[in-house]
Amino acid sequence: MFSLAKLIKPALGLLAVLTMMAAATTLAAADQTRVVFVTHGQSGDPYWSVVKNGMDDAAKTLGVKAEYLAPETFDMAKMGQMIDAIAASKPDGMVVSIPDAAALTTPVKNAVAAGIPVIVIDSGGSKLTHDLGGLLFMGQDEFQAGVMAGERIKALGLTKAVCANHEVGNSSLDDRCAGFAKGLGVDVPVMNGVIDPTEMKNRVIAYMTAHADTQFILAVGASGAEPTLAALDELGLSGKVKTGTFDLSPTILQAVVGGKMEWGIDAQQYAMGYIPVAMFDLWKKYKIMPIADYPTGPGFVTKDTAASVIELSKQGKR
Amino acid sequence: MVSEIRDERVRSVSRLSRLLSRPELGAAAGTVLVFVFFAITAGSTGLFSAKGIVNFLEVSAQLGILAAPVALLMIAGEFDLSVGSMIGFAGILIAIPAVFWGWPIWLSLLFTFAVCGGIGALNGLAVVRTGLPSFIVTLGSLFMLRGLTLGLTRGISGRTQVSGVHELAQNDPLNSLFSGQVFTGLIAWLADLGLIGKRADGMPSISGIPVSIVWWIVLTLACTWLLTRSRFGNWIFAAGGEANAARNLGVPVARTKITLFVMTALAAALFAAIQVLVTGSADTLRGTQKEFEAIIAVVIGGTLLTGGYGSAIGAMFGALIFGVVQMGIFYTGIDTDWFKLFMGAMMVIAVLFNSYVRNRAMRSR
């Protein structure tokens, strides 16, 4: 029969190892700058993975202690609790994203009131950041980036477009689609997609079969863009039906180089991870802080520039 | 006159009532219903063109590959909630050794199947040894595997997507087993006859049948044979029906269940192998929610959640319904925001229909 006693010893051993690992990391010098990121982006998301890489690289280069936290799901109540908990631990700087102003206003205000300097990245925007007492906002205004994408497509003379959304319900992706329609100046239907690449690809095929007059497909992230490219390939429409995407990946950049994709829009989110770490280090040491917001995107990566960033994308920096 | 002597232990059952008591009947009827619905609402839009059919069959096939062994496991009275995470994990196990360590694809495939099978065995062992519900044990593996996948991938690659498998797999002996097209000659012949539509550039709309569809059919047939024609199949029904009684009769219940957990894990690895070699990349988020989709397909297919009753063919119909609804809704022009409502409602209706049919069949005996 199964005995619990047999399991207890190895379990205790594992616990001891984990405790020692945790202790080793907290034994850092007391005067070392400590920066904590609390964002809504799971590190499993390729986009946020690049943010975390930026943070890690800055921490290593500058000798700063940096931590990255995010709830496992899009759970704003939990994210608020995380902000409260981190504020109580008195870091030298806190970096947050604010995808839901209503849910996060109180925790962020409390952290500021407790004397913790706060930088807002990615979502929230400039006005909200300053209303809440944050130092500055860094990121890409998704709606504005969408507008710029729409204007570029309008300039090509295309009018029939679709916005392929692989993660319905994510408001920043909705903003990208809405901005795109504004920039293009016509209604743009949203095609509801999924994370699963096979289903996503086949949905694009189905959509294109039912709407054969579509001239341009906007993908709002790498998880939508790669299946879109595959679908156009299968339909024999590569290069004929134009497409472009938000965010980058090696496959996307390869497609841009090969002329199968117009451009990839880079939010340059590596900077959102790297620069706040450096800023807080300067703030702690010399009380230096930039006085204006810092827009990191949109950077359009086109055929002329794509080849030079492929290697960087493979390393998770672009 | 002496009438024919009948064995009193054998009861004669009419062919109709025997048919009605088959678990897959409800699902088969549901499939017909769904096809009729889409024939009316989307018949002229290309859903039933060669391209459209391959389109929904490919989606059905991948889910069906998962659903067949999941059906067997559920008949044996257990759940495996870790299959979705296992897909993401297996994909990464294939891609990382190939892309970062220079392993040939065939080797990283073998490695992946071995590791996943091992984890499946651990799942099974944990369930039979601890006596905990498999729902809890595999819920634990669901989270552990996701965490492990993310930690490993980010630790090794610094990203959460690993691409570049296409170039490496091109000349691999196992590549065409998972990512190729079959019946290309037949399709070309049909295209010459004008039975298959043309693309904008004049090529036939499909060049072959994705090999995943063959895997789906073969796997379903194999599981059906196992379930209905082998001793192992009897063990599965016995383990799910009344485990203690089965044990007393000498059925190796523990071994049966562990074997089935290995099978579901291997099916997840097969799913991952197909997806990685077809898309050329692996992603830590792959397989999200597949555990539930597989359960939906199996339940629509007439398998009881409580075990002891069900079929692999039913799961095949369940997966087919899933794929047709999933893709068909695009052709109808119905707002796809409603897709999940559709799917959930279909599941409840299918289960109600199944139990209605079953009750009637039982009463008529």
Question: Helicity level of chain B, as a percent range?
Answer: over 70%
This entry's quaternary arrangement is: heterodimer
Largest interface: A-B, 40 and 48 residues
| N-to-C order of helices and strands of chain A | HEHEHEHEHEHEHEHEHEHEHEEH
Family (chain A): Belongs to the bacterial solute-binding protein 2 family.
Subcellular location (chain A): Periplasm
Pfam families (chain A): Peripla_BP_4
Protein name (chain A): Sugar binding protein of ABC transporter
Can you describe what's shown?
Chain A is of the alpha/beta class and 318 residues long. Chain A has 2 domains: 33-139 and 268-287, Rossmann fold; 142-266, Response regulator (Rossmann fold), CATH 3.40.50. Chain A is built from 12 helices and 12 strands. Chain A has a 6-stranded parallel beta sheet, sandwiched between helices. In chain A, strands 7-6-8-9-10-12 form a 6-stranded mixed beta sheet, with helices on both faces. Chain A is globular, with a radius of gyration of 22 Å. Chain A starts with a helix and ends with a helix. With 365 residues, chain B is an all-alpha fold. Chain B has a single domain, classed as Orthogonal Bundle (ABC transporter involved in vitamin B12 uptake, BtuC). Chain B is built from 16 helices and 4 strands. Chain B has helices spanning 15-20, 25-42, 50-75, 83-100, 105-130, 134-157, 165-169, 175-179, 184-192, 211-229, 231-241, 243-248, 253-279, 290-300, 312-332, 339-363, and strands spanning 161-163, 181-182, 209-210, 281-283. In chain B, strands 1-4 form a two-stranded antiparallel ribbon. A two-stranded antiparallel sheet of chain B has the order 2-3. The two termini of chain B are 29 Å apart. In chain B, 50% of the residues are buried. The chains are: A alpha/beta (318), B mainly alpha (365).
